[in-house]
Structures are given as structure tokens and as C-alpha cells.
Amino acid sequence: MKKAVILLSGGLDSATALAIARSEGFACHCLSLDYGQRHSSELEAAQRVAAALGASEHRTIKLELTAFGGSALTDREIAVPTQPSEGIPVTYVPARNTIMLSLALAWAEVLGSRDIFIGANAVDYSGYPDCRPEYLEAFEKMANLATKSAVEGRAIHIRAPLVALSKAEIIRRGTALGVDYSLTVSCYQADENGVACGRCDSCRLRHQGFVSAEISDPTRYLHPDLSE
Amino acid sequence: MKKAVILLSGGLDSATALAIARSEGFACHCLSLDYGQRHSSELEAAQRVAAALGASEHRTIKLELTAFGGSALTDREIAVPTQPSEGIPVTYVPARNTIMLSLALAWAEVLGSRDIFIGANAVDYSGYPDCRPEYLEAFEKMANLATKSAVEGRAIHIRAPLVALSKAEIIRRGTALGVDYSLTVSCYQADENGVACGRCDSCRLRHQGFVSAEISDPTRYLHPDLSE
């Protein structure tokens, strides 16, 4: 069985990416990053999602990005915005996807895996530069010069199956593949029980996705307007 | 004063890269990675080197690459070779430079720095793929698509001033800039006091560099043939 490394945050997108990798017949080695994020209930969600979707393995690696700060997700002094902003929002974590893909690359090389799945999405997204297809292509090119396996002819593929899908399309795809979205947590400031704020960018995009997909939103929101 | 992030391992090359960045007038923010390497005396060396060369700051970030293994430097079951090998040696750590440059990229973005220095060298080196100029160029391209600052027009430069120098040229350059190489540790399996084995690839390349540069080698070696 060919192996894939799946970056699993515990959110909706990466759960769907895992389901897609499983549907393609990969043995899935899931990797989560404990980087000191506000929403640590995401990490517990990642564990539940990995188990529910039949991952072969799930590892959480700790790396204190709070040492650098610079984001509402890694610096408690910066508030999570509840209104859409112009440009790249303060929830952007500097170089986060680059760091996570680099770790996935290291693990893939050790496992002998040539496929790395990431739930990056450039349609209904928050404007993060490291979710765009041109970024992902550049990472893949770099990865194929970086590693011993690539130099020896075993090319690495960065797989972003959601990159061109709308949030509604992602939810429909995942639902068809049996993803239980009630296990996932997308909110930037979910409480310890995984209850979502219903106000941040991530909650808004998620809820709007369910509405557009005409699928009932199983998320538990603190914000009464979004609860069903 | 413009800021640079310097990847500092505690070895000879990165100490020289720091000295070069200082000579160009950068305020130097040094980053070391505690990845569970065998040679933790390198990390103590990094601290001494940063202080001696007038770095503005030195941070060590912990990341257990031993969780992945796959290298003689991160897996105690794999011995450090004492004879040159064909191809890429087992001391290669999967994706190490990619991970370290990614962390440097994150910090550079938070600091508002546009220059990242790495002591990578492709002449007298161990055959690691992630030390080659084509790899470093691909990383820079990727970095300039990855970050908010790059998207906003502040390009990132990956600076590898040693990439085309021989070990002897590096040592001459550093000596001219006042680097005290007795503070540095290159050995893959130095003991806790920083005494080098004198047998591994890294020791051999280092010692040969001093011989070729006709500069006295200040390294303390366990191997009697190399001690002076």
C-alpha cells in the first residue's frame, strides 16, 4: 500500500483532504503541528478525525511558533478579528504552511512516501499567500531539489486536492466520502470543548459553505444566529 | 540598522556566515535548532559564537526531529560513519535545511527582515542535496510566494555567501573577519566538552580546510593524528 503524509489540522479542509487520500488507496500518515495556537481543541479534533477516517497513524509534533509571534493565532496580545478585513488578515501565521510542509517533507522522506496532502484552498479562503496554487507549485519544485529521495529519482508530489474548490464543493465532496464534520473544529478561537465562536473569518466561511452546499451545519456555535 | 536572520549551528561555516553578515552592517538575529542532534555541544558553541561575534540576539528553538529519525544524527541506532561513503551519506537529515530556512523565514517576517543567511556550502561538503545553489534558489522563489511581506513587495533574500567557497577559503575569510574558530564545533559526534572525534566526514573536511588554508587548526580532537 503506498503511503501518504497528510497535514491534518483538525479543521474541515484537512479532514476532507484525508478522506480524498484514503479514497485513492493511500495508507495515511497524519501530521499535526502543536504550534501554540489559540485553538488547541483543533488538535483534539485532528486525533478524532484521523481515527474516524482510518488513518494508519497520527503524530502531533510540538514547535513553539509563539516564540516568534506575529499572528493573532500565536500572540495572545493580538485579537482575532470578528469582521472581514482588507488584505491579508492578522490571523495569518508567518510561514506556517511552509513550516508544516517542510516537516511533512522530512517525514515523507523517512517513510519512503512520495505524496504529501494539504487541505489548502484558494477560493473561499482568508487571503493567505501560502494557500495559492503558485506557492504550492514553488514548494514542490523546491522539495524536489531538497531531498535525497528526489535527487535519487523519487519525485515528491504536493497534493492540494481542494485548492480550486469552493467551501460548498469541499463539504459536498467530503460528505460523499463519509466525513463526519461534527468531529472537526475550524474556529480560530474555539473553546476547550470545541464550541466555535461563530464570528471569526473561519467560522463565517465554514457556515456559509454548509448553507451553499445545502447541507445541515453540525457545528456547535456560541453565536446564536448560526446555531440550528 | 537593517536586520538579518542567521541560521547558526555552532559549526565553522555558520559562524563565518554570521561574521560576513556583521561585516555588511546587519543587526544579526541568530537562530539555532535543537532537533535532538547527537552533537548538542554544537548548540552551546552557537551561543558562544553569537556572543563573540556581536549578534543582537540568539534564540534556540526546539523541534524533535528524532520523532521522524532517518539519519545518523537523529537516530542513535544509525552509527556515524568514519569512512567516506558513496552518494549522500547517512548523516543527511531529511529536509533539515528546508525546515531551518522555513523557521528563519517565519522569524524574518515577524522581525521585518528581508535577509536570511545560511552557511550552506557546495564545494568541500558532504553531498547533501539541500546545500546546492539550485536548491537555495528554489527556496528563495518559494519564500517570495509564501509570505505576506513578499506579497506586499518586500522580497526575501536567501544569502549563502559560502556556497561557492572551498573550506580553506571559508577559513581564510572568517579568520580575516576575526572569527575565533576554537569556539566552533563541527564534529557530528563531539563529546559534551566539544572535543571532536577527528574521524567523521565533518572533522575530516574541517581539518583539511585548515591544512589547505595554512592556518593552525585550533580544534580539540580525540583522534591523536589530527591534534597539533
Overview of the molecule:
The structure is a homodimer of 228-residue chains. Chain A is 36% helix and 11% strand. Chain A is of the alpha/beta class. Chain A has a five-stranded parallel beta sheet with strand order 3-2-1-4-5, sandwiched between helices. The interface between A and B is large, with 43 and 44 residues.
CATH architecture of chain A: 3-Layer(aba) Sandwich
The strand count of chain A comes to: 5
Structure classification of chain A: alpha/beta
Chain pair sharing the greatest interface: A-B, 43 and 44 residues
What CATH calls the topology of chain A is: Rossmann fold
What's the helix count of chain A? 7
Number of discrete domains of chain A: 1
**Helix amount of chain A, in percent?**
25-40%
**Quaternary:** homodimer
Strand content of chain A: 5-15%
> How are the strands of the biggest sheet of chain A laid out side by side?
3-2-1-4-5
Mean pLDDT of chain A: 90
What tags apply to this protein structure?
homodimer, 228 residues, Rossmann fold
Summary, kept brief:
2 copies of one chain form a homodimer. Chain A is α/β, with parallel strands linked by helices and 228 residues long.
